[in-house]
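step=predict obj=NAD(P)H dehydrogenase (Quinone) n=281
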Amino acid sequence: MKIGVTGATGQLGRLVVQSLKDKVAADNIVALVRTPEKATELGVDVCAFDYSQTENLVASLQGIDKLLLISGNEIGQRLPQHKAVIAAAKQAGVQHIVYTSILHADNSPLSLAIEHLGTEAVLKESGMTYTILRNGWYTENYTGSAKGAIGAGAFIGNAGDGKISSAARADYAEAAAVVLASTGHEGKTYELAGDEVYTLAELAAEISSQSGKNIPYNNLTETQYADILKSFGLPDGLAQMLADSDTGASKGGLFDNSRTLSTLIGRPTTPLAKVVADALV
């Protein structure tokens, strides 16, 4: 059985391939990537694959039995791109698509959920066998700012007291690998989130504890936070998306206590303290 992983040179995709190699033979894995020369060190077969080059998708998917469709990173373009991949997969004879969606996509307050929910609908209407992985937030989305927060003397955001049950990117990657390498997941939708629940104030306290410096959490308005992110050089769309996501978090959009993720991977999710420690190295 050939397993294809789209976006295999991305942050999540690389980890999925690494985890898959512990579960199936490397020659059964195909990395589907925009720039093949960046994937040579993955140690698996590589095939050129660009969501936007629809004329080449079917040929690239020939021989693939199971496909992990990692959601694209072009916000606003993802739904048409995903539609094209799903259509090509069906034409190429792919038997099963696993898709990385977003936590509680059907009732999420995050604007990011719109394209994910649209993709889920396309997948369900395709007639193909599918599994939907509704991934919660990556802890690294927040801890990536830890060193900057220490330098600035504060951790900023606009999530208020919203409870966040994020998990390390590697936890989600392992869940994807488990689903790809085993059976019994057909037609299922998994709500995936971390075991640990925290607020951004508690994250700031953890950064303070590990750094030995007092790093308070400063809660801003959505507009203030987006403007500061833009001042750091982030593109307007990305800055607004991050601020919108924090607003969603303040409304419970990044919280889930089902522990489905740890059940699926057979171990507790990576502790917040460990991800913070890794970010501060």
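step=describe
The radius of gyration is 19 Å.
step=end
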